[in-house]
């Protein structure tokens, strides 16, 4: 249980990330297990979002990202998506002026297997029945929780091997967060989608994740199984609040 | 009464041309928030190409089709080669580029073809259709072509994955990249489409306004007026704006001020609408809940 990840789906080595001349991530190493849930914890401004953006090539980056045996050096954001990494960005990134149906169709934009896409849509409705009811509605008119569900579903329509989730709890009522996290766990187990989850709420993230990394000012300062991280005194005081 | 109907319907036909031009402007505006001032000159250039092809013996519709295809390719290339390098430059540099393109197209055409006015054929028969006494066949033909173009454009954006991807890329480039859309190519395609439908506007207008290097300058202004009147972020508003401007121009010209200052009327419309309703008559208000 507590050994280092056996078959990493993604290996990140010496990852650096920049906004223009400003370096924000300073050499991060981490592994994301195939089929598992890995959490990235850290305070405001630690660089969690930027790490995810670097993985999706949304910011200038250096270092190596090896995904399913392939080095992603030089790949553009749209190529990363085509390789099977779906990113639910900070702020959800839904297409507000388009309908729910169109958002979901866009999620499957790179896929040519129409029959499987249709089947995947049914699977998504089984997790998020609300989206079926809202199918023809403009995405911008959905509630915050529904928009988060749509953002996750849009990402799943890619049928990704890895799902990057940037604070799916942000701005949502605790009861809705609980619901969404329960569904994320089910999707992880039943669909075998690996997840890299960014969360400020460490308690919540450690409940869901198998492994976790702690990020401080653009560096990973601690990594291990969820139990190990939870048991760490410094983490408990600083992030778990007990 | 019948003069009134005449003015009305010929305004509708010219309005179709403005509507197509407005649609071309909106297409680029939605993706880049820039008004392509060179849209008219690009269409004028395309119309000369069509004239050239017919002059060397090509049948009308063959020349028409070829011109649309070549214009599409030219639009894509212009975006990739001329516009793209300025993507991150300040808006004013882009405006300079557009103005530069206006002069380049204008003088290149003048240099190749000269400045004297040329006749441009209408594909539609001399005799009015079905004994229609209100409209010439060219006028009714233009209206038919306008609606065909609109239907095709609508169908493309509404029902095809590529059309959806182009809308997505215009709206939210970052999210579009995340779903695997090549946003840069979508912009280039948008330019291609705008150039292609612009060329149709040119070929439909040329039999009425005749072919000369400056034929599009006032037409583009009316097209721009149409786009602003309808709401430059709303393609269907822009189309409606085209018809409204076309009809108003004719009625105002015939009954109020005479044809001399019709063009000023277009400017008055632009300014009036911008003052009263900055987002245009049909300007879209996106309902968003946060
Ligand atoms: N677009 C940007 N341009 C310049 N600096 C940025 C930009 N976005 C973030 N930063 C800076 O990078 C650092 C890391 O930000 P990042 O958003 O990655 O943190 P985070 O861990 O996701 O924080 P939060 O929990 O608040 O979302 C911060 O100092 C931030 O100010
Ligand atoms: Mg963040």
| Percent of residues in beta strands of chain B | under 5%
Work out the oligomeric state of the chains in this entry. heterodimer
Low-pLDDT residue spans of chain A: none
C-alpha termini separation of chain B? 54 Å
Estimate the mean pLDDT confidence of chain B.
88
According to CATH, what is the class of chain B?
Mainly Alpha
The helix tally of chain A amounts to: 10
Structural class of chain B: mainly alpha
What is the topology?
The complex is a heterodimer of chains A (242) and B (290).
Chain A (H helix, E strand, L loop, with lengths): L7 E12 L2 E12 L3 E5 L6 H8 L4 E8 L2 E2 L5 H6 L2 E4 L11 H8 L6 H14 L1 H5 L10 H13 L5 E5 L7 H18 L2 E6 L2 H7 L2 E6 L2 E7 H6 L1 H8 L2
Parallel strand pairs in A: 3-8, 3-9, 6-7, 7-8
Antiparallel strand pairs in A: 1-2, 1-4, 4-5, 9-10
Chain B lengths: L1 H31 L6 H17 L4 H24 L7 H23 L23 H23 L1 H11 L1 H6 L4 H27 L5 H16 L4 H23 L4 H15 L14
The site of magnesium ion has 5 residues of chain A, from helix 1.
What does it look like?
The complex is a heterodimer of chains A (242) and B (290). With 242 residues, chain A is an alpha/beta fold. Chain A has two domains: 1-84 and 160-242, P-loop containing nucleotide triphosphate hydrolases (Rossmann fold); 94-158, no CATH class. Helices cover 38% and strands 28% of the residues of chain A. Chain A has ten helices and ten strands. In chain A, strands 6-7-8-3-9-10 form a six-stranded mixed beta sheet, sandwiched between helices. Chain A has a four-stranded antiparallel beta sheet with strand order 2-1-4-5, covered by helices on one side. The radius of gyration of chain A is 17 Å and the shape is globular. The model of chain A has no long low-confidence stretch (mean pLDDT 93). By secondary structure, chain B is mostly helical. Chain B has one domain: ABC transporter involved in vitamin B12 uptake, BtuC. Chain B is 74% helix and 0% strand. Chain B contains eleven helices and no strands. In chain B, α2 (39-55) crosses α8 (183-209). The chains are: A alpha/beta (242), B mainly alpha (290). The A-B interface holds A 56, 58, 76-79, 81-82, 86-87, 89, 93-98, 102, 105-107, 109-110, 138, 140-144, 154, 158 and B 161, 164-165, 167-168, 171-172, 174-183, 286-290. Bound molecules: adenosine-5'-triphosphate (ATP) and magnesium ion. Adenosine-5'-triphosphate is lined by residues 19, 22, 24, 42, 44-50, 200 of chain A.
